[in-house]
Amino acid sequence: MAPKLGRPRWRVLGLGLVILIVLGAVGVGIYTAPQPLLPEATASLASTATVTFSDANGRLEWVPNGATPSTGLMVYPGAKVPSAAYGPLAQTIAANGFLVVIAPMPLNFAVLGIGAANGVIAAHPEIHAWAIGGHSLGGAMAAQYAAGTHPASLRGLALWASSSAANLSASGLRVVSVYGTLDAGAAKITAAETRALLPSSTVYVVLDGGNHEQMGYYTGQPNDPPATIARDAQQRQVADATMAMLQGLTAP
Questions:
Q1: pLDDT of 40-55, one tens digit each?
Q2: What is the pLDDT confidence band of residue 133, given thresholds at 50, 70 and 90?
Q3: Does 214 map to a domain?
Q4: Domain limits at 118?
């Protein structure tokens, strides 16, 4: 018969388990801590003379004033990046006649919310042609959504410093891929095997001197070389490239 553990030993084991749980929780908290936002991000969460802003339970939406848009863009944020970081970009695109919706992601990880676009589309029956896009991991998960079962109204894809792991070469989607020359992931984005996964008609827009974090208004992107162009200049080029794609969409 095995000897029973004494009470002091049980206490030691119990204390050790508590310590492991606490350390695990702290580790998860540190890993999932969102990147800090810049003031421009917070400022974009407001209506202006050209757009109306609303927050529908974390789903951030910008609608152009004085018009009922028929084309919309859904945006998936990058990993650990709060949705508001893409507010200035969304505001600019919406001011040019498009509905823009940034979908919230669990723990700020788009891999946990690939199907978020379904709710966005269902909430806006007035939109006849949709594009989906995103930054970094968000763009990859947007591509994953586009590769799966999706409404026929999905017509375009915008990849911001991102790439697709799914084969969309025969999808018929109108695709734009925008990246900075100083982005650490540029080599993967430009690799032949990566490009082969996108339609041959994909438009590639190269931002000379652009980096990864300047796709949004946040800071702290790890392993990201400093950009040699201003953030607003990079944002302007991203907006222009994305709007060119949106303008070419037609309802199915």
A1: 999 999 999 999 999 9
A2: very high
A3: yes
A4: 35-247
